[in-house]
Amino acid sequence: PHLKIVAPIVAAVFAIADKLLIGSSSIISDGQKWNLALLALGYGMVYASANQALNATITQLVTGHITKLGSAVSDRFLPGGARQWNKGVVTSVCILGSFIVGGNLGVQI
Question: What is residue 83's DSSP assignment?
């Protein structure tokens, strides 16, 4: 239900930003500054929705995966910590590995 509400709002925000960018007869004289603010709003809504839909797994943002992996490693080696990797940690390891391999391949090309 959340995505059905957010999707039309985001589409409208992107359409308004597009109109400000290419529309010369805009009411707002400095359309580019407003365009940036609208795009930030729209992409923020997209990331928040993806975060909710994917159970806090957004593949474009590596920082969260590094934090999750660091926390899991410290939990594993501390007394009384979790002794097994959960699904979220395995996903983060795969995403970080893909990021590193993709970066290395990109440098080689």
Answer: -
**Residue 81 CA, distance from chain mean position:** 29
Q: Count the neighbouring beta carbons within 10 Å of the beta carbon of residue 94.
A: 12
Distance separating alpha carbons of residues 88 and 56, to the nearest angstrom? 9
pLDDT band at 91 (very low <50, low <70, confident <90, very high): confident
Q: Which residue has the tokens 């290419």?
A: 22
Poorest-pLDDT segment among 32-41, 47-56, 60-69, 96-105: 47-56
Amino acid at 53: A
What six digits make up the tokens of 9? Answer: 């709002």
Distances (CA, A) of 55 to 31, 49, 51, 81, 86: 36, 10, 6, 23, 13
φ, ψ at 40 (rounded to 5°): -60, -40
User: Can you give the C-alpha Rg of the chain in angstroms?
Assistant: 20
- Rounded to an integer, what distance in angstroms lies between the CA atom of residue 26 and that of residue 34? 11
